[in-house]
Protein 1
Amino acid sequence: MSSEPIHPRIKTVRKHITGRGAASGWSKTRATLRGLGLIVGLVGLSAWGLTYGRVGHPAWARLRQFRYAHRGLHDTVTPENSLAAFRRAVAAGYGAELDVHLTRDGRLAVIHDADLARMTGRSATVEDSTSAELASLTLAGTDQTIPLLDDVLPLFESTTALIVEIKPVGGNHAELTAATMSCLDRFNLDYCVESFDPRVLAWLKRHRPEVVRGQLTQDFLRPGEDAGLAWILRFALTHLLGNVIARPDFVAIRFEDRGLGAHTLCCSGWGMQGMYWTIQSQAEQDVAERDDHLIIFEGYVPAGDWPKN
């Protein structure tokens, strides 16, 4: 008596139950897992190669002694980046962060914006103005004027410390960085240099490797955060891909963007020093210092001891 034909689906089930075909299936799975592992490994190596920086610079022993007043210790009557604001910072025992632009006649102006309108009411840029023209302007309706870097630096000789942000405009990164370093060399200072532009750090790496250098960053991929930059540049700056040429000593990130993976990799993974900007309350300070990050602060008076032992 002939047997009924076996349905193809039953054959398939029987094949798997009895183990026929299982070996080839497992081989394919293992091959897939190996492929995924290789991809993960390559991504990890790429992340390491692109983002790692320098650790253990001896200057940190001094630089870590201070909290840093953002653009000096300014308030409603003392304008930012003014000599008065820097004097207040030093008198209170704080370091300070300041910004440097290159004037048309090759001087170094301490002011945050390239556009002069916000702080002086003048419709012009720093880079298109001479130092004499800038000296005739007052800051935020006060009697304070835009200082030159060599006016500010004597305040910090043998006192506290400085974070100098270099702010290139129109491709002048090399000229601006060289001029800034030449000015800094004339004074007995504890300082580090930072910039959003990795080319500044690359210049320092090549010409002044002994200087502590830091990469500024934020989440440029957030809606409304394009800063007029192309998407690919915003991606690279957000994910610290410029570290491949800059090899910074520290990463200074906007406080609300502190969860970015590249920042975490640099600071928690590679052990680089971190900084947060701009800390605006005691609660934010407490978070920052629990993370062992230096702070650039404004709008309040920090409490508590620093550095922590």
Protein 2
Amino acid sequence: MKHLLAVLVLASLGLKSFSQQATSYNHYYNHPFMYNPAFAGAENQGQVTAVSRMQWAGSDRAVTSAFVTAELPLKKNIAIGGRFYSDRQGLINNTAGLLTFAYHLPLNDHSRLSFGVSAGASRQGISTGNLNVSNPDDPTIGSAENNRSGFEGDFGLNYNYKSLNLGVALPSLFRSDRDNVNFGQQKGQVFLFSAAYKINTGFAEIVPQLIYRNKSEFQGRTQTMLTLYFKQNFWAGGLYRFSYGPAFYGGFKINSHFKAGYAYETSPDGQSTSIGATHEVFLSYQFAKKGQ
């Protein structure tokens, strides 16, 4: 029992720190709605997207993640959507489901300002299914598994001018448990800034991007990306997270509705090779655009 209590205490400490980081999905470049609710319905078409990620594969610190989004543009510049994500690292489980409302305000023929807000339920707990527990009715186990359910929400803005996109998101706008509601984190609000610019060369579309987050305990705060789209039929690119390392990705359009992609991320800079690489798979189904 002493060993079990030690495991639960350590896992609880890990849960607190892990839940405060947003896993840096490499497919953000192709689907910014994952982090910024203002992008819901921004392409004026409905779509369902799924991303599966195995971070630090083969190591005892491996993290398994899944992210599913759905978005649908409606009339009068309104869009709705939903996001579901699940992370697991060892005994630690983190899941949430959020509904999104977005509004796209045209400023003139070339620019638009978008707002988005999401709210939903989350659960953070410890899985003891793989432990040899002599007394499964022990109240310590039940408490460890059930004391972190609550509600959470996020907010985002995006400004679009022709080929330029500037976004700001508050991924931890609020988080509540049974006793209180916290806006942001205890040590200050987390925000994410993004910038992207599309350069059309005729042969290919080149998109440089920059992402900065003011807090990141496990991965670089700043990352740069460069993606080449070839007639929107296939694409390839790379990114670099400062103080962390590079990643490479690519994808292709299967048909008029489906597209798929893959990303490979190296081990963190300066870390032992025992911390494995990261693999990520992307699949999206797009409905016909409104008006078509």
